[in-house]
Each structure stands twice: as structure tokens, then as C-alpha cells.
Amino acid sequence: KPDVISYTNMINACTKAGQIDDADAWLQRARASSVPLDIICYNSVLNAWSKGRALDMALEKMTELRAAQLRPNVRTFTSALSACVGGGARSARVAQGLLAEMREDRVEPDDFLLGVAARAGVFLPPSTPATEPGAFRRKEER
Q: Based on CB atoms within 10 Å of each CB, which residue in 42, 60, 93, 100 is the most buried?
């Protein structure tokens, strides 16, 4: 019987092949099989949707992982922010909201996440801790 690692590997294989719908189908299949899923499995499918710049689907996966009682980590937020890159004003607002969620969840950004956030149109001042309210600002507020 497949376990969470098997499902995650299938999701990653589909992502690498550019088969985003198939990656998501493997997540749905895993959920239906009652295999306990972890954040790595959800991050893998979130990454698939982010590579396709499918912002709404990426946000849906964020909602699903929270509903599964999983706590997002820096990779989760990096993938979700990746879906915001190049998406215009709505995507920049969503990115700002994701960074606010990240602060609430007390997830510390790494350099890679900060680069993705900047490409999505939001910035963290260098001297401001990520957990401080108002830490993230859109570029027009700098």
C-alpha cells in the first residue's frame, strides 16, 4: 500500500514533467486513501501550482493544508509567493497577505523567500524582524 513518501514522489515526478493537474490528482488520491499526509506532500503540490503561476489553485492548497491541521513553513510560503510573481496588482496584494499570514504563523523568512517576495512586489526592510507587525510593505509604501 502506498505511503506518504510514495505519493509525494509521484507528485514531484508529475511536477517535474509539467503535469500539474496530475500532481494535484495524486494529492487527491492520497487524501482519499486516508494516508496521513504531511507538510512535505502539500508543499510538493503547492509548488506544482506555483510553477504554473496558478495563484488561485496555490491559495486553495494553502487552505487545504490548514484544514488538514498542518502548519505552513517557509517552503510553503515561498511556493505560494512564487505563484504571485508577475501577476500584477492583485498578486501583489495576495503576496502582502501571505506575508502577513507568515508573520502570524511566526515563520521566519529565508533569503530565497525574500527574493521571491521582492519579485512578487513586496519587501521586508533589512533591519525589521519578520515577526514585528507591519514588517512587510508593498514597494509603493517604501
A: 42
Q: Is 139 exposed, middle or buried (0-12, 13-18, 19+ CB in 10 A)?
A: exposed
> By C-alpha distance, which of 84, 87, 88, 108 is closest to 97?
84
E strand or H helix at 113, and its extent?
helix 111-120
| Range list of H helices, 17-105 | 20-32, 39-51, 55-67, 74-82, 88-104
For the stretch 87-140, pLDDT in tens is 888 888 999 999 999 989 999 999 999 999 999 988 776 555 554 555 554 444
- Which triple of cell numbers denotes residue 68? 488538514
Question: For the whole prediction, is pTM greater than 0.70?
Answer: yes
